[in-house]
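INFO batch 0412 | record 1 of 1 | parsing
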Amino acid sequence: MGAHKQYDGYESYDYLTAGEDYREFALPERHSGFEPYEIPLTDDEEERAQQVAAENYVVSFHEHPFYFPDDLDEDLWDYIREGRAVTAYEALADTALDGVFDMHFDGLASIHSQHGWKWDDIVHDVSMRACDIAHSEYAIRCDGADDIRRAYDEGKLAIVPALESAAMIENELDRIEQLYGMGVRSMGITYTASNALGTGEGGIHERDGGLTAFGAAAVKRMNKVGMAISTSHSSPQTTLDVCEVSEKPVFDTHALARGAGVGKRGASDEELEAIADTGGVIGILSSTHLPDIETYMDHFEYIVDLVGIDHVAFGPDVLYGDHTGLLEVLADFHGIELPETTLQSPYVKGLENPTEAWNNIIRWLVKNEYTDEEIEKVLGENVLRALEEAW
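INFO prediction complete | emitting tokens
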């Protein structure tokens, strides 16, 4: 967390007049819809937790750090079509985060089309958010690892523009450079559905064809440009192929371990080991398949035991709003039925939004007596080390 947070009170799009220049939506309170939870600590542990937060680089590898509307049934699609995600600057300032990978609306960016992932939708989303961040004195748009360190020194927050799929590049390699020019510093290969680059994780019900020839060319172009590559939501063979083709570290920004008990939902040991073998890092995913932070940290410890602590970080993938409610609305829109495990609890205890998650991740590490060196690595140093190689 470094210096005391220098949040200046800016709220998204303050440079415009709400209701006149753009439509305003009712947003939820930070803790609406769930019971806040904080891991209890002794006085000595509390003191150490505060010290850990203050003295280490803290980086979230995967979040959607903005608000979704309070009434999802009524307002979700209008909010998305407005094309103005409301970043939770004040709530983020109440965390120890120095850097956060912001995944934007991703496939929800259906601003100009019905199903998202189109070039115009992604460009709109990325550039609109860039304009908003540019008007904040607290948040800075991250161009490289040194910006995260600067955020730590100055009490600010470095926001890393990132995308979960490369679907929108279609068959145009040059679009990778255009996205980089727009500030995007991390991109996934696929998001569940297969695309021109490779097979998505949803494609494992079909033939897992892995990375395509075009996908291999895209991996090489991302290496040359200096854009981090994520295999989250890719099929097993696509993940293995990316790790073989890439000359730089490969990442899974948010993953669960199949071996820790989530069935096909998680990554296999082979995939996790292949990512680590590239020098890459695996961020641990929070998911409604998990009831609480304890089961979340079971996956952390499983992956640490498997690949070593130098290759593990945290990418909770949470947001400000009703996460489970959002999944239900989206499932209804796409005409699919969510697995029972997805709906087993209305929220993940201790991890429901970025503020609660990052408070409790630090507290859990302290309570479970991880060493200063181990905590330093998993909170941020592992990510920074690998990004310096990839960027």
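INFO post-check: The longest strand covers residues 157-163.
INFO record closed
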